[in-house]
Amino acid sequence: MVAAVITIVHLTGPVFHALAVGDLEAANAASPVLLSSYLARPEARGVWRMRAAQADEDPASAAWVTGVIWDAERRLAVGRAGYHGPPDAAGMVEIGYAVDPAHRRRGYARAALEALLHRASEEPDVRTVRVTISPDNVASYRLAAQYGFAEVGEQWDDEDGLEIVYERAARLRPT
Predict the structure, then answer these.
(1) Which tens digits make up the pLDDT trace of 77-95?
(2) With a threshold of 0.90, does the pTM exceed it?
């Protein structure tokens, strides 16, 4: 596996709305980077509908929510990553990410997780970082465990079913 160098490119309401209906052409017309068909597939539209509603209600949230995992060297969108929203009243942000199967096992999930953790550690209002993982997603669990996430409970998600909830401090102290 090669260490991936990525940026998470934030999107805007018009891009969210276009992706929510699977209109890749309109999404690309409004996006700062070229988007892939993976981002506009039917299975992703629920995420984009949520993000469009968030951006409509609070345009500033677009700088926090799901964006594009962008490999600038290859000039390629390889997935999506971001937070579920800005920090809540308790200072918690929840991370979400998904890598296009065509680009997995190249370090993109790790790079996206590291970028999100780095930003959380730099944001003064963030105290806790959360990730939720399906019990059968062993790869995601193993990745999260390497970054100090500990199980704190479980929840039911209407789209994803049972999820195990993991959290860690935004700024971990060296051991």
Answers:
(1) 999 999 999 999 999 999 9
(2) yes
